Amino acid sequence: MPEIRKLDIDTPALLIDLDRMEHNIKKMASFFDMQFSNLRPHTKTHKCPVLAHKQLQAGAQGITCAKLGEAEVMAAAGIRDILIANQIVGPDKIARLANLARHCDIMVAVESRHNVADLSMAARHAGSTIRILIEVDVGMHRCGVKSPEEAVSLAQKILESPGLQFEGIMGYEGHAVMIPELDDRRQACLKSMQVLIGARDALLKSGIEVKIVSAGGTGTYNIAGSYPGVTEIQAGSYILMDAKYRSVLQDFESALTILSTVTSRPDKETAILDAGMKAMTFEFGMPELVGVAGAAVSFLSEEHGHLYLEDADPQVGEKVELIPSHCCTTINLHDRFYAVRGDRLEAVWSVAGRGKFA
Ligand SMILES: Cc1ncc(COP(=O)(O)O)c(C=O)c1O
Q: Could you tell me if 204 and 283 lie in one domain?
């Protein structure tokens, strides 16, 4: 294909800086080279099979998905070892899950006996085996069993359920991953890991084998990842990062931007961009403008981004880049990534798992 420069890409466009992303993949992989635990990257961040394959090539042992639809996309792209780190509930989805188990080594999180019974019945019906992790509430108070005793009793039920294979436990310390002070973050994460390992110990004491102890996010990858007994880490955002995560953790580089065009200059202090809330989410704050001093995003409306210009004078037609405040939800708005190296376009990749929230 003829060489295309970054600034020739039509806007709004979602860009990956390949050098930075490759740095992030390598940095995370080299951390796990030195650990007993391994990486099972959460692909809900990028939702892109090409990137999942790159993480596996760098040494990750499998991948994590948030949703059944995302897992179906990854399995169709040839990935086998997939954890859905959520409960799958309801007859339609459970039937899809049992069918998917015929095509990959799917693993799913459970927290209730009723759900275990439904999964077992569907797996038997489909003639498949579903791998199971018990989710433990490690302090986030979202999902998961509440005590080691509950974990033991549920594991016993799983072990006697045909069609299911008990693999271990998971606990996501989501309340800890973005605590700004490292010491506070470490304390919160360690407390959660104690709860998780407490559940593992109760299972072992009851004679139940626990192969997998899964936890962690980008903000706690090295704390949970080096905690004795934890076997895998579900970090996702590290691959591309966003402005919010960069404000608490500088271990990884910002590799994701939105390219946008200035479409109007209504007055001296304002520039209007062609990227608004349909191109960038803002639940974690406004996107960060890069490379333009004296200007900042003040507001997003549906199709427009509003820049407040204190000491800048961007012209209509000029292109600017913005770092999204939240990578996972921003990527979900786009059909494709434009992967650039320096100022050259190198590849275009489909965000195939975008919108697969069912
Ligand atoms: C279950 C689970 N594991 C891991 C993560 C880690 O993601 P991140 O790396 O973005 O912190 C998340 C994020 O929401 C999650 O829900």
A: no
Closest residue by Cα to residue 41 from 21, 16, 15: 21
Index of the ligand 1 atom closest to the CA of residue 327? 10
Whether residues 61 and 160 fall in one domain: yes
Residue 10 DSSP SS3: coil
Residue 290 lies in a domain: yes
Question: What order do you get walking across the sheet with 212-215 strand by strand?
Answer: 38-39, 232-233, 212-215, 164-171, 130-135, 105-110, 81-84, 63-65
Query: Structural domain of residue 234, as residue ranges?
Result: 19-239
Q: Say how many Å lie between the CA of residue 65 and the centre of ligand 1.
A: 10
Report the candidate in 230, 249, 251, 252 with the shortest Cα–Cα distance to residue 185.
249
- Give me the number of domains the chain comprises: 2
User: Ligand 1 centre from 153 Cα, in Å?
Assistant: 27
What is d(CA 48, CA 53) in angstroms, rounded to the nearest whole number?
9
* Nearest-CA residue for atom 11 of ligand 1: 217
Give the pLDDT of the chain (358 residues) as one tens digit per residue: 679 999 999 999 999 999 999 999 999 999 999 999 999 999 999 999 999 999 999 999 999 999 999 999 999 999 999 999 999 999 999 999 999 999 999 999 999 999 999 999 999 999 999 999 999 999 999 999 999 999 999 999 999 999 999 999 999 999 999 999 999 999 999 999 999 999 999 999 999 999 999 999 999 999 999 999 999 999 999 999 999 999 999 999 999 999 999 999 999 999 999 999 999 999 999 999 999 999 999 999 999 999 999 999 999 999 999 999 999 999 999 999 999 999 999 999 999 999 999 9
Q: What is the torsional sign of CA 274, 278, 284, 285?
A: positive
- The answer on 120 and 65 residing in a single domain is yes
Residues with a CB atom less than 6 Å from ligand 1? 42, 45, 85, 172, 174, 177, 217-219, 234-237
Tell me which of 25, 31, 39, 44 to substitute to probe ligand 1's pocket, judged by most ligand atoms within 8 Å of the beta carbon.
44
Q: What is the pTM of this model?
A: 0.97
- Do 181 and 211 lie in one domain? The reply is yes
**Are 217 and 267 within one domain?**
no
C-alpha of residue 217 to centroid of ligand 1, in Å: 5
Q: Closest Cα to atom 14, ligand 1: which residue?
A: 174
Ligand 1, residue 216: give the atom nearest the CA.
4
